[in-house]
Structure formats: structure tokens, C-alpha cells
Amino acid sequence: MKDVVLAKTGLYRSTSGDKIVSLTEVERILRAAADIVHCIYRQGTDSSRKADGSYLTRADTEANQFLQQELLRILPAAAWISEESAADADRLKKDWAWVVDPLDGTKEFVRRVPEFAISVGLVFRQQVRLGGIVNPVTGEGAVAEVGGESRFWNLPTPRAPAAALAEAYACVSRTETEKGLLKPYLNMVGFTQPVGSIAYKLLRVAAGVDHLTFSVEPKSEWDICGGVALLTAVGKTYRRLDGRPLRFGQPDLRIPCGAAAGPETLVSAFVSSWERLFSGVR
Fold first, then answer.
1. Which CATH code is given to the segment(s) 4-153?
2. How many Å is the maximal CA-CA distance in the chain?
């Protein structure tokens, strides 16, 4: 997309000046999508299963359709990457991409556990530049631009910072906890709490409600893109456990490893402890 530049004002605009993507616009779209999902949640909805066994609901498909329409309206030359849409055939040729999960945590949605979220990220040449997350039931949300403004709303009061990993409060995967996958790592931090959607966990960590989150199972780009934008905007980090750099809009949208996210000092301490445990060094 040759006619789009990153403006110093923190807005994304075409050189002709006719298209602008701002935090205000993304926030408006996120809140409207949240209204759609919350309405369906209140009504109750039947679910089906995809080929991989995961849930699919009317909330997934209706939110996806709305987000695709609205986000491509404000930046139509961007690629569209979503869990609930076929990948653009020419997406790898485009500089810009929307990376979206219209309902991260569909299992929680079906179980009536209000720990799911809508996640949106805007990527420029494989790096996330802007993003947002909202929980449609609790109303918690945030939007942020990397190197620019961030806005958080309806979130609990942040915790006092943790000086060491032993003092850290971590929100961790409910699914991974139920599977027993996190048991070897739980004593690395002071406290843990199982929470559903990874996008929702990243929102909580970016806001300081929890100090840290970590996961040992693979993720897809749409699971984390919006959250990485929030974390980066507030000076926190998301680190892959395989040590490879984080890029978006890749040919393979699956990230084949776990990760840790939070303040750099806590993430580094967790990764060091994880590497020692994983290698068998005591």
C-alpha cells in the first residue's frame, strides 16, 4: 500500500489525505462490536463445532462481519486476517493488515464465563502499530498506538508493581490449567489466577491489573496482535518462549510456542527460570 504513511501525529493517513485511522475511530468500532456480542450473549446462542473441534457461535460470525466491514472501510487497502475469515489471497503483498479475533475465548462465551474479548490489531510491515481489546460483558477495554496515546476504561485499579517474580500476580490460561500443563511453572511466580481469553489476559496485564501472564501452548496471530499493541504502547513486552522475534502477517499465522508478557524485568526473570527448568538445570 504505497500511498499510506505513518504520520508523526499518531494517525495513519493516505498521502492524498482521504483516509484516516485514529484511536477514536477504532474505539468506536470496538465498542459497537462489543454491543453486538453482548446482545447475543444475553439472548443465548446455539454453538457448533469447527473442523478442529473448537466452538463457533453467531457472535463470532456477526462480530467478524461487522468488524471486517467497518475496519476495511477506514483502511480499505489493508489485508484482512481473522480467525473467522478466509485469508486474503494477496495479503503477503500488502504493507498493512488488520489482524482480528472477533471473539477470543468462544469456549468461555459458550460456558457463560465472562472472560472473552474482541481483539483488533493494525500491522504495518509485520509490526503492530495500533490495537484495541474490549470485553463485551464487563465493558473493560483499551485502545493504544505504539509510540503514541493509550486509553483504558472500566478496568479495576492496577496492582502495585512487583519488585520480583516471587511477588508477581499472574493470570494464566484456564484451559492450560485444566489440562495440567502449567503445573511445573506455577511456583515460579507468587500468585496465579486462571482466566479465559488470552486477549483478555493481555488487556489485564497491559492495564496493570495483573503483573504477568504466561502460556506454554501455541497461539495464532489474531489471538495476541491487539494485546501486543497495548503492551508495547505502555512499555511492556510480549516474548516468545522460543526466542524468535515476533512478526505479524506471516505465511503461517500459527505461532508454534508459548510466551510470557508483562514488564521487561518480570518477563526476563520468568523466561530465565523457564529455560533453566526446561533444560533440566537446577
1. 3.30.540.10
2. 60
Alpha carbon 266 to its chain's center = 19
pTM score of the predicted model? 0.91
Say whether 270 sits in a helix, a strand or coil: helix
Q: Note the helical H segments in the chain.
A: 23-43, 58-74, 106-111, 174-179, 198-207, 221-233, 264-279
Mean pLDDT of 35-59: 78
Does residue 210 register a pLDDT over 90? yes
Q: Rounded distance, CA 29 to CA 31, Å? A: 5
The CATH architecture one would assign to domain 165-279 is 3-Layer(aba) Sandwich (3.40)
Stretch among 38-47, 114-123, 254-263, 267-276 having the lowest mean pLDDT: 38-47
Give the C-alpha distances (Å, rounded to integers) separating 131 from 91, 93, 110, 150, 153: 19, 21, 25, 10, 14
pLDDT in tens, 212-243: 999 999 999 999 999 999 999 999 999 999 99
Q: DSSP letter for 22, please.
A: -
